[in-house]
Amino acid sequence: MKKNMFLLLVTASIFSINAAHAQNEPYETTVDGVKVIVQPSGNDIVEIQTVIKGGVQNYPATKAGIESLTMSSLTECGTLKHDKNAFKDLLDKVSADMSGYANKDYSVVRMNCIKSDFETVWPLYTEAITQPKFDAKDFEIVKENAITALKAADGQPDAAIDNFANKVAFVGRDYAVNPLGSLETVPALTVNDVKAYYPTILTRSRMLIVVVADLPKADIEQKVKAMLAGVKQGAPFTLKKSFFRPYSNQFKSDARELATNYVEGITSGPQAGSIDFDAFNIAMNIFYDRHFLDVRTNNGLSYAPQARFSVGATSVAKITVSTTKPNDYIAVFDKLVDRTKHEGFTADEVKNMKATYLTSFYYRNETNRAQAGAIVSNEVLFNDWKRINTLVSKVQALTVNQVSDAFRKYIGNMIWVYQGDPKQVDPLLYINGTLKHDNPVTH
């Protein structure tokens, strides 16, 4: 009954979305060299996201955090026409929301308001993007908040182990950089650094604009054209994608006094847009369930073991656990991977996960903001925003062999990192494996 309910939910979601599209199709247009993607919403909410591509590829590691501070400052430091308080007051009067943030692959400045307030909010949004004030006093508040957040993250073991894993696995690569910066880089950044940096990334060649709203095409194009009038074209830009594969198991530890130990492993994953992408995505979702069952339910080694596919310009698989018995954990992990590679996944597992995955996808994308975010990530990472409209057919067409083979192909050697009591872990078990026959984490 549960399986049938998942399928019914997916079918209902597809039917409702396709019916809406039949009445008012999404489309793309180009305004002065900038792609604008419009998804009619069927409601009275306007969500607009202006994207600047590049992320951590835009700056050196010594300036980590500069783009994040810049994006936050756009809406937190006032504009040349309105100081911070006046700007915030105008937004509060119409209950509009505006913010900026940065991640590893791109940054976003977004606005959200009721359709009837759009004419009031749009000029403020344009000001924030094209006429930021970068007030020195307000910037210091933004920076202090960023430093506080970094300290808090370092004190959160889940965030700390992931940052540590990225630094170790991606050493020498852009992806080693935390887009939020570090406690070494952010305090050194100044308002003048941000003022000088912003014009280097605010170019039409890096921009993408996504609109999820019921607005006339002519109105959208006219407003975007006016906003872009003062934005330079800039040099051509293409987000660089890279494939990650460890050629041997590695282990690095960081001694910390924690209530329990934290372990994270990073290995390969298919690039966005590759032929194995959807199959591997389903494979990792099934493996998450198997990993959880084996590690927590069957062996009681971790409260919340994780296995996920981290998608970006460099896509990888990540395994994370907190455990008081790290040596027992790696033995369980090795056996699980070995068994999965030899036996593959079952037909029922693949069938059920496809239904679960698609249901979850539509559930997560119910709001205008989530829909805009999905369009942005698919366009930036896959160069194909329309992928969200073909996802169902592609996932449903996957075979058991494709899903099993994708797991075998990419789950290989691991970069392991460890935070906790170094006396409780034997690094050789992670480096050499625990099985007596061929190491399951090698090809």
UniProtKB/TrEMBL annotation:
The keyword Signal appears for this protein: yes
SUPFAM superfamilies referenced in this protein's UniProt entry, alphabetically: LuxS/MPP-like metallohydrolase
Record keyword Ligase present: no
Molecular function terms, GO-annotated: metal ion binding
Keyword terms of this UniProt record: Signal
Signal peptide start and end residues: 1-22
Pfam families: Peptidase_M16_C
UniProt domain Peptidase M16 C-terminal: residue ranges: 189-356
Protein name as annotated: Putative Zn-dependent peptidase
Taxon lineage: Bacteria, Pseudomonadati, Bacteroidota, Sphingobacteriia, Sphingobacteriales
